[in-house]
Amino acid sequence: xxxxxxxxxxxxxxxxxxxxAAGRDAADPLARFRDAFVLQAGTINxxxxxxxxxxxxxxxxxxxxxxxxxxxxxxxxxxxxGWFALPETVGxxxxxxxxxxxxxxxxxxxxxxxxxxCIAAALxxxxxxxxxxxxxDNFPTDxxxxxxxxxxxxxxSLRAVKSTDAFAGAIDDSVAAIVLSHVHYRTAxxxxxxxxxxxxxxAGALSVWDLSxxxxxxxxxxxxxxxxxxxxxxxxxxxxxxxxxxYCWVSPELIERTRQPLSGWMGHKTPFDFSFxxxxxxxxxxxxxxxxxxLSLAALxxxxxxxxxxxxxxxxxxxxxxxxFFIDLVERSCAAFGVTVQSPRDGSRRGSHVAFGYENxxxxxxxxxxxxxxxxxxxxDTMRFGVAPLYIGYGDIVRAVAALHDILxxxxxxxxxxxxxxxxx
Length: 425
Ligand SMILES: *Cc1c(COP(=O)(O)O)cnc(C)c1O
What we know:
Layout: H1 8-26, E1 44-45, H2 56-70, H3 77-80, H4 86-98, E2 105-107, H5 111-125, E3 131-135, H6 140-152, E4 157-161, H7 167-170, E5 175-181, H8 193-202, E6 206-210, E7 229-232, E8 247-250, H9 294-304, H10 312-334, E9 340-341, E10 353-357, H11 361-370, E11 373-374, E12 376-378, E13 382-386, H12 394-410
Bound molecules: pyridoxal-5'-phosphate.
Pyridoxal-5'-phosphate is lined by residues 110-112, 139, 141-142, 181, 185, 210, 212-213, 233, 246.
């Protein structure tokens, strides 16, 4: 703590919270997973919704890939080390996390590129419809990719609504597809996926869901909820590493009729025939474009190993309980400084991060980062903290909120070192 003393009531509040956190951490059935990650003493990664911590298994795997598969195996490793099949074998590890079946998910390229493939594929399945229905507040890349497609494909236009409450009224027989996130990147609001899909289907529109903030935090059932296309990130709660390749799922009812426009040779039915005509591979392999990103896929494959042991309802329960604990403690200790809660209070409608409004939030987040407490900031005023259930404990949350409280109380965020701009917020 710095020079200014906290009020006794705050000291009591944090002492009580610390005791409660110790009890909850001791009883946490997921606590054993912390050891599966490389965590630095003194650093708390409350940005696992942006870049997850590194699983230990990745280190050993990369040593094998670099020390033998690539360096010694060379091209033989495409078959011998299973490289060629990695987009699908890694996809099979993700499938149970989203309610998909084996052979239905493929991994490769970025989330943005997979959005492009899926939106274009949806338009091709609805040639008589030319409108893409978006939420204004979608994660920007979703809307930018849709804009790029509208600029490229004659007749295609965008329709954007303020919130999904307006979705049902905005779906008519001109809408080819809706493009939407399941968990909102800023507020963590969880959408009612099944209800939205019902409305889309009733109007004859297809759905393209972005599960970037869902996978590895909030259980989802893409098949049961009636989705048509789903894509998502793997470097957030799945801990695949910076820029890890994204995944893509297409409903089994549609896949054999689906064509995606990035018809590269690795998604060809028989790439080594080197034939003139493109013929898509069967099933989801047709969503592979060029040569798979083997180093990234291998790291992701290793990062995903531990998920076979994770009980998803237990994970979701901890996510809800720990985000509620976080919100409650911030509200009780920091509301007096003008901090507001931007995430839903209803745990069933909240993903695994918490968002708070504060005018000087960017400086506050930089002051926290200087103490090893890593969160992030989203314009205009959102302080965002990811609570990854596999490696964040209740004690971490108390430490983070106590530091936040201290920074606000002493106004240490107002120092020169926390002003100015940064490349990434
Ligand atoms: C993180 C995120 C992305 C990331 O897209 P990239 O192409 O991997 O940069 C896309 N959509 C949402 C909703 C995200 O949260």
